[in-house]
User: Fold CamS family sex pheromone protein from Lentilactobacillus curieae.
Amino acid sequence: MALSIALMGVLLVACGSADNLNTGSKSSNSSKTELTGQTDSGYYQGVIKNGHYQTSKSRGVSVSQVSNQLNIKGFENGLLNISKEEFSTKKYVFQEGQYLSTAKVENWLGRKSKSNPTGLNPKKGSPYVPNYLSQISEQDFMTENGRNLSLSGMTIGLAINSVDYYTKKTDGPTLEADISDAQVNKQGKAIAAKVLKRLRAQKALKNIPIVIALYKQASDDSLVGGNFFAYAVNDGGATKISKWTKVNQKNYVFPIQSGKKSPSKTDEDAFDNFKSQVQNFFPNLSGVTAQAQYSDGTLNGMKVSITTQFYSQTEIISFTQYLQQAAQKYLPSNAPIDITVQSTDGIQSFLSRNAGEKNFTSHIFNSY
Amino acid sequence: MALSIALMGVLLVACGSADNLNTGSKSSNSSKTELTGQTDSGYYQGVIKNGHYQTSKSRGVSVSQVSNQLNIKGFENGLLNISKEEFSTKKYVFQEGQYLSTAKVENWLGRKSKSNPTGLNPKKGSPYVPNYLSQISEQDFMTENGRNLSLSGMTIGLAINSVDYYTKKTDGPTLEADISDAQVNKQGKAIAAKVLKRLRAQKALKNIPIVIALYKQASDDSLVGGNFFAYAVNDGGATKISKWTKVNQKNYVFPIQSGKKSPSKTDEDAFDNFKSQVQNFFPNLSGVTAQAQYSDGTLNGMKVSITTQFYSQTEIISFTQYLQQAAQKYLPSNAPIDITVQSTDGIQSFLSRNAGEKNFTSHIFNSY
Assistant:
């Protein structure tokens, strides 16, 4: 019962959700658990306790320690996608990590030392020994037993540096220690083995499936985040990782810089055509870039970002309508694509096409 | 034929558009006219010439002269809505104003003087005489005659100051001249009469219907833009305005400040309940405000803006799903509502419900 959260209140579930339990809110206010509702089956419902979202026990550690935001967003989104493979969004409820506290995560992210025996980064050394482990993320997956939610699975993400930034003395210049892919892989797996053993030592985590996924962080100046390269599914009780599944995922920035490798000549040309059409639209030039992600050479999706100056709301409307047409004509089909249109005043409109759809939907932001 | 733009190329029209003409682009490049396509029947298609959007002849005048951006967006959006009443988006194509040049608009916006005889603002005087006219916007409405687009209607928006900001000497303090509603109304209509006469003197504008609409600008510190208060439809040939139609439109900011008049106690309570639920969600407080517009006491729509700090992508997802539920439960039904969710890093997600719909759709922005 240590794993169960009594659902004293009644679950609020959005219309059309797959796991509609009860509705209403007549109950007493003591330890009331609700769910966030589900806007679409691609997302997990989350846990609300007494009207407050149940935040992570290690909330804010990544935000305070990782400088390239793309490494945080990419890590968390990618980890969710890996979780979804094991823990269906229809069956499981997502809970922010409750088993690794801020203190524990901070210690684990530190270097091993006398004062920090649980540090998962290597002891200080000379020549400089890089820090490998940069982020730890815990995701809990709950199932509903009657009116209780109980922990039924966990995913742990470990983000490994591809570059470690350090200074030799306080206020000294920032130096970079590059870490080879082979090292990222080796060190990541070694850390994962230790983490699994430590988790199994917690009574509540002994017998649940635990997925551990490894992410290679991008450098601080990268315009895309890093990528997952392996994960292991560990059945309840397993204290050793028996099998790693390789993930062949890579992010690119379009337009591809000259001299850099292109993931797909077709997609590159498609984007370049789109870009030159769009840049032609206004007399003033628009900035057009995109992030693209590939898995096993197949485009997972594109996030297109367009920045331009607008002189009227009617220009925003016309431009957005034009983009819808141009995106459909030029950009790769079959992949989900988001397009955000921004000016110095912030987002002006956005267009989106989901996987398998032909047409883009659009939204133009306005005000009263 | 002065009004006709030869459609040398072939019109590109988005799928599902009501006025599908031709598709393809085999033609020569000389003076090729295309349309932007139409993302939804609530928007006009716009005119593209030789691959470039046909921008307004007075492009940028408002942006350079009006300090409260909300007065620009609100003026242009509102003017489009008035245009749609006279010129159906299904039948007419929108063209940015081509008959009032930057020089002309700047002169008209100036004070009348020896060097500027066409100035529509009063001569300098003592005591200080305020500037009434602040913005002029021209919208052209075209119809398709075979392969030609010809001008078939025009809407002119005149924005009148409710406060005129001025200095007595260069670098002196900014002073405010308040303008009463009665003056806004009187001066606006007098200026409109002159504008109509001037437009009719242009050969191309003699015989088309011209709508003139009057907007009262909000003060520079207002968190909502101004509002339209009257418009006149002038049939082809008419050189005098025979009838003004009153517009009873007003914008509000929620939460209503104590002591300020509420447009609707029900809507005010609904918003306050939504706000307190939402602010309860995270341990850190969220800012929750809204712009609301009423016509004849009926809610036209709401733009809700939520700002909070997020510590992870999963928090953004859970919050957005929760908002969908809370918005549906608490916010006024039957009116279109947009909700944007922002952090210091910009927009994180947004939710939207169109008029007549029950459910909100949502989009969560992410990155690779």
